[in-house]
Amino acid sequence: MASGDIQNKYQRLAQEYAKMKSQHSVLKKAVIDEQSKVAELTESTKLKDLSIRKFEQEIDSLTFRNQQLAKRVTVLQDELDSASVKKKNKMKGPVEPAPVVADPSVFGEDLQKKIQENERLHMQVHQETEEHRQVVASLQVRLEQLEKEAGQHQSVLDSIHQNHKALVDKLQQEKAMLEVKLQKQETDVRDSKRIADHCQQQLKRVHADLSYRLDDSTKVIQEKVIFNDTKYQELNVLNVPTHDRKHQVKAKELIGQALGYIADLVSGMSNYLTYAEQRSQIFPMDSTTGEPLSPINRRLCQYLHENAAHLRPIEQSFRSFHEGLKEDALTTLETATGIQDFSEKFHSYVAYMEKLLPYQLRSLEEECAVSTCSATLEARNMELHASLPKLTATLSKLDNYLSLIAAASKSSREHPRTNQAAFFTQMAGGLNQLHEVLKEISKHYNTKVSLEHQLPTATQKLKTTDECVVSSLVALVSCTGKFAPFFSSNLEFFVSRAGYRTRGVSLCRDTEGPVSSPVVTDLRDRATSYISRLKRPCPESVPYKTAVLNRRTLLSSTESREGLAQQLTTAQEKIRGLEQEKEHWMLEAQLLQVRLEKETKRVSQLEVDLRQLQAGQVLTPAPPVEVTPTAAPGDRKSVGSEVETSMLGKLESSAADESSESETREQLIKAHFTGRVTELTSQLQLADSKAVNFNSECRALQQRLGLAEKAKEKFQEELQTAQQKIAQLQDELTTTTSNYESQLSMMSEHLCSMNDKLTQQRDEIDALKLSNKGSKKGKGR
């Protein structure tokens, strides 16, 4: 959103806000005026009520006086009647003295006056009552109108106040959202500018690189590449074949349909084996009632319980093979390595069924041996007994041909490619045979179950389980009945060659289409084998967490390297001293060992000589000393001379021993120092390797330091740029705030002037209304 659009929107919002504020003040003043008028009318109503009460009191007093006057008139009338009667009697009878009576004319006048006054008062009271009733009615009507108008004004005021509050909240939220959006957009603009600069640089580099490559490629094409003419078939067969995507799409679609059929087949077979396990547990012996199962049925139930472990991998392996197919890569038997896993899982299942077959046959034989088994039921069992090996044989046949088809993706296949069509044909025949075998098993089992249900020992649980087994067999027959025609109808596509076509087909005159050269096929096979060899699992690498921990350990060890170096120097000095002492004592020990051996030999020689002297024999001289001829045994002189000669030989031999000991010592010292020199040389080499390692580490640390300094400079520049932008944005915000404040102040002044004008107009209108009311009242009077 542009800044001009935002400013225009804020101006419109400010105008709306000013209008609402002016309406709010005007309505508030009108409500206050109406409330004052209602208060005045209430006061006038109270005054009128007081005057009415006064008139009612006067009426009551006049009524009381009228009653008194009426009684007075009645009394006077009675007196008048009695006076007229007496006058008649007087005229008839004797004359009696007349009582003193007042003048009737005086009473008549007084009565007439009272009557007139009473009439006038009655008329006046009636007129006042009528006027008061009319005034009260008009005031009541006006009061109701004013209350209604006041209620309407109050509701309007409340609604306007609520709308104004909601509008203010909405405007504040929009303002906050716009500010956040503005900040986000500014951040995006900065990021976009930085990315644009980076992309511009990359574009320049890529453009330069591509220009160089284009020039180089153009030069190579012009100088080296021969023109490829697709007109002649003998030259066109050497072209690299292109990928036919329609073939791949159809192959993936057919494999998806096959996956659905295989899933249904696996589900039906799993249901069949599961229900067969339940039936084996309740017939011929019901294990739920405590009766023990036979060893055959127990082992059969154990094997049947393992069916899911052999069936589920079949569907999962084929599903993985289907999910691994892609539309941008051609799928052939040579490249479909996923079929090998599917073939292995199916082979495992076939081996499981072969292991299961003897126990199924023995279980049927045990059912025939039951006393309740009739001859007809035994015949049906034998028919089923003959059908079960056919199922295993058919599955084994399918396994063999599936393994041959899967072997096409191996580099060590033993069959030629021309036999693949025969394998698929035999596979289709095996599926048809599987359908027929399952139909036969379902028929025999249905007949067997109908006969078993007629037995008196057949329980409801057995009947329900048999119905489930029959329904699972019917589902298997239905599934294979769909799978076999599907495979047979698409057999031509399966046995057709790979989806390749030679370039220049439209230019070829041969109606049968061009044929690729055997060299191209060989190259394609070599590429397929190379790609299959590349699909090997990657070697295990060090986990990221372990690498981070090792790096932290390295950093911590680098920080404490000085302390470790000092400890290493001290330890090396101690080790050097100990090694010197060790060498000294080893040398002394070797010398003592040599001396011990010499002394041991000398002692042994002396013991031998002593034994010979005791035996009276001639002493044998030492080997290196020449000995004189021996004398007769009876001559003492000769014996003494012989003894002396032998002693001289011993002295000579001792001297020779000393010289040999010195030579041995020299040889030991020489060997020791030679070993020491060798050890020092190895230590020197180790020290040189450590020095080289430390030198490389120092170089690496120096490079890291240089990179860190460059990164620091870059971040400082970005920080300065960000600070400049922040300062610029703050200036813009200050300017915008001042503009808004000036506009709001101008609008406030304008609203104040408009309020003053409206107030003056309202006063004039009220004055005109009051003048009109006064004129109407004057005319009414």
Compact description:
Helices cover 82% and strands 1% of the residues. With 781 residues, it is mainly alpha-helical.
Structural notes for this entry:
This protein has 781 residues and is mainly alpha-helical. Helix 4 (245-282) packs antiparallel against helix 10. The protein contains 15 helices and 2 strands. Mean pLDDT is 77; it is low at 94-102, 505-514 and 618-653. The protein has helices spanning 3-92, 104-223, 233-236, 245-282, 295-304, 307-323, 338-368, 375-406, 420-452, 460-489, 491-495, 518-534, 544-559, 561-615, 636-780; strands at 242-243, 500-501. Among the domains are: 3-92 and 103-177; 243-500; 501-532, no CATH class. A two-stranded antiparallel ribbon has the order 1-2.
Task: Give the fraction of residues assigned to helices.
Answer: over 70%
Give the amount of beta strand, in percent.
Answer: under 5%
Order of secondary-structure elements: HHHEHHHHHHHHEHHHH
Query: What's the Cα radius of gyration?
Result: 65 Å
List keywords for this structure.
82% helix; 781 residues; mainly alpha; 15 helices
What is this structure's SSE topology?
Layout: H1 3-92, H2 104-223, H3 233-236, E1 242-243, H4 245-282, H5 295-304, H6 307-323, H7 338-368, H8 375-406, H9 420-452, H10 460-489, H11 491-495, E2 500-501, H12 518-534, H13 544-559, H14 561-615, H15 636-780
Antiparallel strand pairs: 1-2
